[in-house]
Specification:
Strand content: 15-25%
Radius of gyration: 31 Å
Protein name: Kinesin-like protein
Bound molecules: adenosine-5'-triphosphate
Distance between the termini: 30 Å
InterPro entries: Kinesin-like_fam, Kinesin_motor_CS, Kinesin_motor_dom, Kinesin_motor_dom_sf, P-loop_NTPase
Number of strands: 18
Shape: elongated
GO molecular function: ATP binding; microtubule binding; microtubule motor activity
Pfam families: Kinesin (PF00225)
Structural class: alpha+beta
Family: Belongs to the TRAFAC class myosin-kinesin ATPase superfamily. Kinesin family.
Largest sheet: 9 strands, mixed
């Protein structure tokens, strides 16, 4: 099976007003090759007294500035959407310290108002729109409206204090993670909304974004307090092939409690955020290390990593957007992000389009149904011919003795055919019903087995 490393793109935002006013300087720099990030790393003083050294890390891409269209291009979203339409599970994951620009990159600036689903700006209307609205626009440009090839359904969840909440149905909280052979890990009872066109998809995105938990602290006045995942499911209309999907993950940012002066409920939120990011770091470290890769990977230590199992070392295709602040004040956090991103680059996935299991029962039922329909048609045809013959004037049927004899025997033969067809219709109908019952029993049995398997896995 082909392996493929997680793709990593680094985005360095510009210094903000507060940082400039404070006199912070830029401590990282993207070089002209648009792949390398240079930074001044502190080291223990050497004999000549030097305390820092210029280092560089290379990624699949690196950019700075505020141009959203550049991020869209560099992320190769069009190709990723094509992959998802083909049946792959694609994930785009924004990672970085609080205030580093994850939400700006995924959604857009605060000035873009998604608070009213009806009035939400459509992609193309605003150059500052982030990756998600742009990807929604691109998807429907590719599919056309209405789409003839795929259905599009969307879900939007947040992971807040280790509880999964449905952002499209705010009453639906603390949802459970389940597992089944066909889909792997999934969130039970998570609402999936049909999107017929880009306006529907943007309205869904706006509704979920409005319901996200946002808080304010010293490093970011609109800080995400939860990890959010918007997923587009893309089943084919002809029911052939696997259902692809594309997930947009906007992680909450790690933060230093001392600096954000966090207390009370916010302190609890931050501890949960930091803990799940810590587990994410452990999972990435284990997967990035060829000696540990084959051993135990601690996915089960947090819901976030369980949700991302397929994207990290699994069968999906993943792009990580590592967001960084350039401010010298946050050099430590930025170096953490860059080293995390560098490890993530070594994580290998094995992207495959899952082959739908061949359901022989279903195929047999389909064949029987087709036979039944053609027999019914034939039957109706024969009946018509039969009725027509029976109503023909007697004169014409008694034209000659022998022709009357042959017509009579033909009718008798036809009636025998009809009787035979009726009998075989009934037999097919009965075996069809029996197969349906058997199929239902097998499905119930399979669900029971999956539950047992899932519970034993949980233990
Ligand atoms: N590339 C950029 N260009 C201009 N402004 C940016 C850029 N990235 C981020 N910003 C601004 O910086 C601030 C923080 O960004 P954002 O809220 O996206 O950070 P975040 O990483 O999502 O933070 P948190 O983890 O706390 O939610 C916002 O005011 C945002 O508009």
């Amino acid at each position: 099976m082909m392996t493929e490393n997680i793709q990593v793109l680094v985005r360095v935002r510009p210094l903000n007003e507060a940082e400039r006013a404070r006199g912070d300087h830029e401590c990282i720099h993207v070089t002209d090759d648009c792949r390398t990030v240079q930074f001044v790393a502190p080291v223990a003083p050497d004999r000549r007294g030097a305390k820092s050294v210029v280092k560089a890390l290379t990624f699949d891409g690196a950019l700075c500035g505020s141009q959203q269209s550049e991020v869209f291009r560099a992320s190769k979203i069009t190709q990723l959407l094509r992959d998802a339409l083909e049946g792959y599970a694609v994930t785009i994951l924004a990672y970085g310290q609080t205030g580093s620009g994850k939400t700006f990159t995924m959604t857009g600036p605060e000035s873009l108002d998604y608070s009213d689903a009806e009035q939400a700006p459509l992609p193309g209307e605003h150059g500052a729109a982030g990756l998600i609205p742009r990807a929604l626009g691109e998807l429907f440009t590719m599919l056309g409206t209405p789409s003839h090839s795929h259905f599009v359904r969307a879900s939007y969840l947040e992971l807040y204090n280790e509880a999964i909440n449905d952002l499209l149905n705010p009453e639906s909280t603390n949802l459970q993670l389940r597992w089944q052979a066909k889909t792997g890990v999934f969130v039970e009872n998570l609402l999936q909304v049909d999107c017929e066109g880009v306006a529907d998809a943007i309205a869904v995105f706006a509704e979920g974004t409005r319901n996200r938990k946002v808080g304010s602290h010293l490093l970011n006045k609109d800080s995400s307090r939860s990890h959010c995942i918007m997923t587009l499911y893309l089943p084919r209309k002809d029911l052939r092939g696997a259902e692809g999907r594309i997930c947009f993950v906007d992680l909450a940012g790690s933060e230093r409690l001392m600096e954000t002066h966090t207390t009370g409920e916010a302190l609890k939120e931050t501890s949960h955020i930091n803990k799940s990011l810590f587990v994410l770091g452990n999972v990435i470290s284990a997967l990035a290390d060829p000696r540990k890769r084959a051993g135990h990977i601690p996915y089960r230590d947090s819901k976030l990593t369980r949700l991302l199992m397929d994207s990290l070392g699994g069968e999906g295709r993943t792009l990580m957007l590592a967001c960084c602040s350039p401010s010298s004040l946050y050099l430590d956090e930025t170096l953490n992000t860059l080293h995390f991103a560098s490890r993530a680059k070594n994580v290998q996935n094995r992207p495959v389009v899952p082959q739908p299991a061949v359901d022989t029962q279903a195929m047999l039922i389909q064949q029987l149904q087709a036979t039944l329909v053609s027999l019914q048609e034939e039957n109706a045809c024969l009946k018509l011919r039969n009725d027509a013959r029976a109503s023909e004037p007697a004169a014409s049927s008694t034209h000659t003795g022998s022709s009357s004899m042959s017509a009579g025997s033909e009718i008798a033969a036809l009636l025998a055919d009809v009787r035979q067809l009726r009998t075989s219709n009934e037999l097919i109908q009965r075996s069809h019903d029996a197969l349906l019952r058997e199929n239902q029993q097998l499905k119930t049995k399979l669900e029971r087995l999956e539950k047992v398997f899932y519970h034993s896995e949980e233990k």
